[in-house]
Design brief:
By secondary structure, the protein is α/β, with parallel strands linked by helices. It has helices at 2-11, 37-47, 61-67, 92-101; strands spanning 26-32, 51-56, 77-81, 84-88, 107-110, 132-137, 143-149. The protein has four helices and seven strands; from the N terminus they run H-E-H-E-H-E-E-H-E-E-E. Strand 1, helix 2 and strand 2 (51-56) form a beta-alpha-beta unit.
């Protein structure tokens, strides 16, 4: 059946497979509120970049606490990928860098919901992009800037 699907995709001229059809896609577990649209948009951002998301739509407060992320780093969704916690609207480029460099850390966070970050972008925001930082959270709860993004009006 899979071979028929793949051959059909090739016959239609498809040049890439969706993340769900790619057995080598990186697994991503996400906890979010069931009514949050920006979380859904962030998940699409991740899946378009080769991640395969499984989603728990029962909020992220318990997952954030269980995974050891302090409230000061909180956002509207929490994810886990290859043992690293991803809190909030972290761009895929930063996650790929994290997975490549493999620092001894808890993970990455974009506290709050900055406009212009993945999932908080698009026509509804009129092209606005606020400045924000992606933080590398250490296992002791401290953090340092991993990447800074400049804003634009």
């Amino acid at each position: 059946m899979r071979r028929v699907f793949l051959l059909g995709m090739l016959a239609l001229g498809a040049t890439s497979l969706p993340a769900a059809a790619n057995p080598r896609a990186t697994a991503l577990q996400v906890w979010k509120d069931p009514h949050c649209g920006c979380c859904k948009d962030w998940i699409v951002h991740m899946e378009q970049s080769g991640f395969r998301a499984s989603v728990a739509d029962d909020g992220n407060d318990a997952a954030r606490a269980r995974l050891g992320v302090a409230q000061k780093f909180a956002s509207c969704h929490t994810a886990l990928v290859q043992g690293y916690v991803i809190e909030g609207h972290v761009p895929v480029a930063d996650i790929l860098r994290l997975l490549k460099e493999k620092p001894k850390a808890l993970g990455l966070a974009v506290p709050g919901m900055p406009i212009g970050s993945p999932g908080m972008d698009g026509p509804a925001y009129g092209g606005r992009q606020d400045a924000y930082q992606v933080l590398l959270i250490q296992k002791d709860g401290s953090a340092q800037v991993f990447t800074s993004y400049k804003g634009k009006a």
